[in-house]
Specification:
With 266 residues, the protein is of the alpha/beta class. It has one domain: Alpha/Beta hydrolase fold, catalytic domain (Rossmann fold). The protein contains 8 helices and 10 strands. It has an 8-stranded mixed sheet with strand order 1-2-4-3-5-6-9-10, sandwiched between helices. Strands 7-8 form a two-stranded antiparallel sheet. Helix 1 links the parallel strand 3 and strand 4. Helix 2 packs across helix 3.
Amino acid sequence: MSEASSTTEPQFLAVGEGDAERKIAFIIREATSNNPSTTFVWLSGYRSDMSGTKAVELDRLAGELGLACIRLDYSGHGLSGGKFIDGTISRWLEEALGVILHAKPESIILVGSSMGGWIALRLAQELAKLQNAPKLDGMVLIAPAPDFTSELIEPHLKKKDRASLAERGYFEEKSEYSPEPNIYTRGLLEDGRENRVLTGIIETGCPVHILQGMKDADVPYSHALKLTEHLPADDVVLTFIRDGDHRLSRPQDIERMLSAVKGLIR
């Protein structure tokens, strides 16, 4: 890894400038192997954080294998600063990229859940533009939701949602996972259009393993099929889990995730 210190306690990185600066919380588990092969990077979903079951289990696997692991909370999530209502794909992408470049791993495997899958795909695009960026060894995308704002939300907006967006700049939607509603802002939707990846070939330059539940009420499995159509140049494995939901956090789902990650280690 890098000069970034090894600790199980969260560290904080300032991302952005001026009024846009926010303190991003992250945790780095440093490698203990004498010859570590890669670093895991966990990318959470919308309104999730680095303390979730899948994130913790990925970190545990890294410890077992003697590998490094990076976890972070986007702004407005978990321990990080910033307001959730200010969040956009561009902001959360900037934060993930900032933490990765700060940690300076030589190579990485990105593991993204739901929106984290979208962030992972955008990270691949941004890392490809940089010199001396970490090498991307692979991706595991769990119920990935690339372009969810334009593909899964905007087409289904109700009249009252459009009115709320126009009048208040956001609308609320009942959450199945929290007593607090999901909030979708005009800024998130507009920025989402600028970050779309399902517009052409996505060149990740690495193997990709997608895990998708067929009883996912949030991201239909047809969305995973559509994603694979945009990954023709890559070694792509798509695993459907017939009784799996969106979270894919049951013990058997966690084992699938860990197995997929181990399958990408070189």
